[in-house]
Structures are given as C-alpha cells and as structure tokens.
Amino acid sequence: MNSDLLQGFYLGDVLIEPLKGQVSGPAGAQHIPPKAVEVLLCLASDPGELVTRNKLLKAVWGEGKGSQEALGHAVSEIRHALDDHADDPTFIQTLPKRGYRLIIKPELAADHSASVVLGAKGGAHAGDIGLFEDLQRRGVFETAVAYLILGWLLIQIADIVFAQLYLPEWTATFVTVFVIAGFPIAISLSWYLEFRDGRAVVDTVSPADARRRRFGRTYLSVVGALALAAVVVFVYDQSFGLPEAKQPAMLAVELPVQLPPILDNSFAVLPFLNLDGGKETQIFADGLVDDVITQLSRVPGLRVASRGDSFTLAPNSASREVRDRLRVAMYLEGSVEMAADRLRVIVQMIDSESGFHVLSRKFDRTREDFFDIRDEITSLTVANVRVALPPGLRSSSLKVIEDPTLDAYVLYRQGIEALRQPMSMDAVASALGWFDGALAVDPEYAAALAGKCAVYVKAYGEMDDSSFIAKAQSACATALTLNPNLDIVHTALGDLHSSTGQWNDAEVSYQKALSIDPSNVESLTGLGIIYARQQRLDEAEASLRKAVDIHPGDSRAFNRLGTFLFQSGRFAEAVEQFQYVVGLQPTDMHGYGNLGAAYTLLGNFPAAAAAHQKAHDIEPTKNSYSNLGLLHYYMGNLDAAIESLTSAVELRPNDHLSKSNLGDALWIAGREDEARREFEKAEALVESALQVNPNDPFSMMDLAWIRAMLDKHDSARDLMDRARGMAPDDPYTYYYDGMIFLRAGDKEAALDALEIAADKGYSRLMLGTEPHLEELRNDARFAALVNTN
E-strand spans in 519-641? Predict the structure, then answer.
C-alpha cells in the first residue's frame, strides 16, 4: 500500500484524508469507518485495476477473516460518503462475482505547484521549457490519450451496437473514418487552446481547480475535434464517397450426405420400358407397375419402395443406381410392347448388390389378358423373395378392388396421371374428367370414385378452397358405399379430417385404412401428424418411424419424421433425417430447405446458408425465398431479408406466414408503418384459416404474434393460452409466449416462458440472435439463458 496515500489524496474534487477518516467534497465532509478507509486505500493503490474480493478481505481483515457481507457493507459506506452509485458508478465499479475497481486515478494532496505564465513579466521564457514538458503542460498527451480511448470506444460501439440496432452498414464506416480524421484536429486544438490574449498560459492552482481546468481543455479539444471531423467527413462522403463494404459471401461448406441402411426383404418395381412408344402402351406399362407395387405392398414383411420413389429412376437403370437411390435389396424391371391386339411383357428380378438376375419371364398375350399378366407378375415376385405369406393368404387375395373393363381402366389410369401433376384448377378439371369418363364406362368402378375423392382432398389441401370439402365428402362416401375395403378412400378421408382439425375422425379413418392395408404409409404418416397435434408424442414418433421402415427409399417418409423431430426441438436428429432426404433426392428443394432450417436452429449458419441456397438454386419458390429471408434476418442483413421475403409474398400472396415474416423484418428495420400493413394482411389470412380448422395451435400462435405486433395484447394473450393448452410440450409454444409477454411489457413473464422454451429444446443460440428480444440483451438472466457454453 502506498504510504503517501495516507497523507491524503484527491478523487476528482473529493479530498480523502485517511488518517482522519474523513471525506471532503462539494457536499461537505463525511466520516467513514476505519475498515472502509482501508478498503478505499487498497483500491487507490491499484487504480483502474481489478482488486479481487479475496485480496481485499485478506488485506483489510486478515487471512481467513472477514466476510463477503462485511466487504459489501464497507464498499456501501464508501459509496455513501462519495455520493456514488453502483448502477452508474463515478468512483468505484463493481465487477460481479470478481471484485471492485477504482475508476478515477488518485492524486496526492501534496502535489502542488506554483502558477507559471509564459510571456508574463518575471515569468519563464518559452525556451526555458523543453518540448516534452511544454506538451505536457498544454495537456496534449492527456488529450491524445483521452481521444484515443474515446475514439476506440466509439468504434467499438459502432461495430457492435449499430449491428444490433440494424443501422445501415455505412454508419459504422462513417464513425471509423471521422474518429481517425479527428485525431490530428484534437492534438492541434489541445495546443492552441492554451493561448490567451497572445500568451500561452498554464495554470496550476488547487488540485481540484487544476483538474477541472485540464478536464475542460481536454473536453473541448476532444469534442471539438469530433465535431469538426464529422463535418469534414460528411462533406467528403457527399463529394467523393466513403469506401463501401461488399456483402460478404456466405461461407461455402460441403453439406454432408447420408443414406439410410438397406434392409432385408426390401423391394422395388422400376418403371417399365415402353418399347413401341405408343400412348396406350405407356398407360399399360405404368398401370402394371402401379398395380404390382400396390399388391406387393400388402405382403406382410415385404418393404416396397413407393411408386413416387421408383419413378424417379429411368427404366432399366443400373443396379448400383437403384441400390443407392431406393435402398432396396432386390428390384423388378421390365418392358411392354403392343402389336395390334397382342401385349408382350418381359419382367426381370435383379439383385441390386450384385446386379445378377434372379428370374426372368416373358408374357405374350392378348390385350384383354392385361389383368392376368399383372397378377402372375405379382405371384412370381412373391414366390421369389425371401418372405412367406401368412397361412390362408394367397397372392391373388392381395387386391381389394375387382378389375373393371379394360376401357374403363385406361381412362382411370389417365385420371391417376393427371392427379399426380402439380395441383391447379386445370389439373383438377382434367383428373375429374378422366375419372368421370371411367365411371361412364363402368358406373360401379369404385376406384374411379376413390380417385375423385382423392382429387378433392388434394385440391383443398393445396389450394385452400373450402368449397372442395363437401365435394370430397360426397365422393368418398359414394366410393365406400360401392367398396368399403378401399384403404385409399379411408386415407383420403383421414387427410380431409386432419386438415379441418377433426383429429378423432381423422384417427378413425386412418385406422380403418391400416386395418385393410397395414403397410399404408400415407395413413401411418397421417396418424403420426395428428398424434403430434394431440401431444401423443411417443405414438406419433412410432407411427412415423414405421412408415420409414416400410418404404426404405421414400424421401417423403424421412422428411415427415424429420419435421416431427424438428417441431419437437430435436434439431440434431432432424438434421440426420433431412440428410437422408437429400441423399435420396439430391434435387429435392424442400429437403434442402428443411435441412437449412434445422441447421439454423442448431446455430450452424454456414451450413444453413449452403442448404437454403441449394434449395433456391434447384427452384426459386416461396419457401426458398422465405428461408433465405429469415436467415438474412437472423444474421442482421435486413435489406437482403426484406428483398427475399417480399419475393416470397409475391409468389404466394395468400400465405400468412410470408406476410408476417416480412412484417417482422420491416419492423426491425424501422419501417413500422409498412410492417403494420403486412401484419394486418396476415391477420385476415390466418383468421380465415382458423375458421376452417379452429383447433390448429400453430395457426393460433401465428395469429397471437400478429395481434401482439398490432398492439392487440388481450386477444394475443387469450390465443396463446388456448394454444398452450393444445400444445403444452412444444418449444415453439413457449417461444411465442415469451415474445408476446415481452411485447406486452412483462419482462419477467417473458423470461420465464423463454426458459421453458429452451428447456424443451428451442435453440438457445437462436434466442440470442432474435432481434425482437433485443431489449433483453443486457439482462443477466437472459445472458445466462442464451449462454451455450
């Protein structure tokens, strides 16, 4: 401890007299206890440095003595005497859980000097003082240090805070340039401000007055320099322009690709080759493949690749390509040729690992024998795969629909092809036309009615037109009247009930479909979705995993499982499933988009950017623009975010989420009037969706957030309470809950909800980057919440 300090020292304008235990300042004299004096002396011995709690306890109370409470009390007594405040300290700064720091450097009371006036009668001459001493007397060094510290702080603030405030990038550049330009101006001002009436004056009076004068000179020099530099740089920017930072390219990363394992008894049927190129030949070729797949999928223990996956490959594809894409052990390929009324079909079963033929058959029959050929192919396949039919089950019993006339079948097949096209009013009309044509030929053809049912259900799901609901119900009911064993109809009804929020009815329909065909993947995934909505999470996961097991190369099944895991907050597991999706379907933009979303919530922004960009490169869609926009939003690139989200809205103007996301970006960018207009449009759209499905908790959350942004806080709170009751285990429920509480001004409730969201799996890193949570950044509780270490 410096013994000179015992004789007294100044802290600013306050005189400390340790031997008297007295503090004298503008407000008068205060007495402080001896222990508090010793603590202050310890801090004054190391000004500006951290003095730990343990060091203070040991120095003042002795080894192993004292307590944290006693130390805290002593510091409080010092602050009281100095009129200092812990939350806005002038003298003593608290470093939580570490110690304390004396902010002001003490000046010994004994350090007094006489006044020196250069140029005055009897005074010293300029030549009698060296350059270093002259610079010191004029306060140039003090100004330089003060300017460098303040300039560094300004640059740091601009670098960190401006980004959090989403100010334009040029503002940080402007601050850096004018801080650099102001340094020589500050030095010059510090030198020349000492000239008074033609004389250079350096006054040293009482320590307090001297400090005040030095502070005033330094203050004027620094502030004046910054002001002048700002004007100069502004003029330069308007005339020539400041350097502009180029938008940094997103890091190029190699996205890992995984493929699911190849399981036993996994089988595929490739598209059959049309040898003569005729339209009717193609209908028969596709029909053979579809019907054989349908019948084989009913064989217990046989895992059959879906029709959609099989048709991603060309006829007669190489065995390695089939194995990698469909993940099957064996597959069937073939060709079809028509000559007059003759139908020639060749089929071959191939081992995908070796490429060797297991069997080969040729059929040369009449056109009318089409259904017999199909059934024989099915029987041959079942007989040659390593799976046994249960007792009493024959391959001929694997079909549930009686064969129609061949002419009706041809029309029906064309309806099926139209149904598989991207949904539009033209596609709906085309598919319905073909199915009606088939029914005109064979009014009892239940499959054609099932096709009409599927058209209406798909049209409602894709086009959100409620007029299709009644039509779908009518077509489905008529089909079941003709044949109650149509699992496709029960599945379609399940989809319809699910989309309108009738969870119990949906479950009944899906279970009926599965009782007819236990390997109906669409019903299994539908069940998984409604179980998840009902918070029956274990059942949901089991159903979705069973669907994946049945169709080994079905990227859609992996995608649905990944979506479930994503919504459950299990982002790393979701990444694995989405990697399977893009491994199986390298051109699946939705798979890459979902993979990017999962990477985003894991905090892996480079991988997320690569995945979203890949999806966008495959096909620019509403989702790809939305995903890129949200990534830019979280990375602070607001201009790019608004541009991408605006494109998403233009591509799908009736999507409430696109408008809501755009509203968020506009709001953070300070364009609140524009944001409010987008939120109002989104509100109307989601209200319409809730009229059709009033039990959708996710739409409720969306509407709650939108209304919170429109300052309709009571309505937002009611909606969130309802949504939380429907989805009490979903992390997004508590994420939105916290956001809405904060929007309403309830900071503590917001933190409570956000902590639950993080505990249930919501990304802590994403909470830390969410712009709407900006006001929590300096909160210790929030800092602990988002600390990923």
Answer: none
CATH 3.40.50.10070 fits 266-399, yes or no: yes
User: What does the angle CA 423 – CA 428 – CA 433 come to, to the nearest 5 degrees?
Assistant: 150
Closest to 499 in 3D by CA, of 471, 533, 476: 533
Residue 378: CB partners within 8 Å, gap ≥ 6?
291, 292, 295, 296, 395, 398
Which overall architecture, per CATH, does domain 3-108 show? Orthogonal Bundle (1.10)
DSSP 8-state assignment for residue 122: T
User: Could you give the 3-state DSSP secondary structure of residue 331?
Assistant: strand
Sheet of strand 199-202, all strands in order from the earlier edge strand to the far edge: 116-117, 199-202, 195-196
What pLDDT score was predicted for residue 1? 56
Distance CA 29, CA 523 (A): 84
Give the HSE-up count for residue 579: Cα atoms under 13 Å, Cβ half-sphere. Answer: 17
| pLDDT score of 49 more than 50 | yes
Helix (H) or strand (E) run with residue 109 in it: none
Give 135's pLDDT tier (boundaries 50, 70, 90). low
pLDDT value at 323 more than 80: yes
Owner of token pair 């391959």: 395
CB proximity list for 155: less than 8 A, separation 6 or greater: 175, 176, 179
Q: Going edge to edge, which strands form the sheet with 107-108?
A: 28-31, 22-25, 14-17, 9-11, 107-108
Contact of 486 with 447, CB cutoff 8 Å: yes
**Contacts of 593 by beta carbon, 8 Å cutoff, 6+ apart:** 611, 612, 615, 623, 624, 627
Which is it for strands 14-17 and 22-25: parallel, antiparallel or unpaired? Answer: antiparallel
Q: Which residue has the tokens 């730990």?
A: 52
**Token pair listed for 541:** 């996961």
Q: Taking the domains of the chain in order of start, what are their residue ranges?
A: 3-108, 117-239, 266-399
User: Cβ–Cβ contacts within 10 Å for residue 277, how many?
Assistant: 8
Report the relative pairing of strands 92-95 and 107-108 from DSSP bridges: unpaired
Residue found by looking up tokens 């194995």 in the block: 323
Exposure b/e, 722-740, CB count within 10 A at least 16 = b:
bbbebbeebbbbbbbbbbb
Nearest-angstrom CA–CA distance, 557 and 545? 8
Contact of 167 with 159, CB cutoff 8 Å: no
Strand partners, 785: none
Q: What is the pLDDT of residues 556-565, one digit of tens each?
A: 888 899 999 9
Confidence (pLDDT) at 195: 43
Nearest Cα residue to 162 out of 173, 178, 150: 173
Q: Given CA atoms 177, 183, 188, 189 in this order, what sign does their dihedral have?
A: positive
Please give the model's pTM, rounded to 2 decimal places.
Answer: 0.53
Output the CA torsion sign for 323, 324, 328, 334.
negative
Find the Cα–Cα–Cα–Cα dihedral 211, 214, 215, 221, rounded to 10°.
Answer: 180
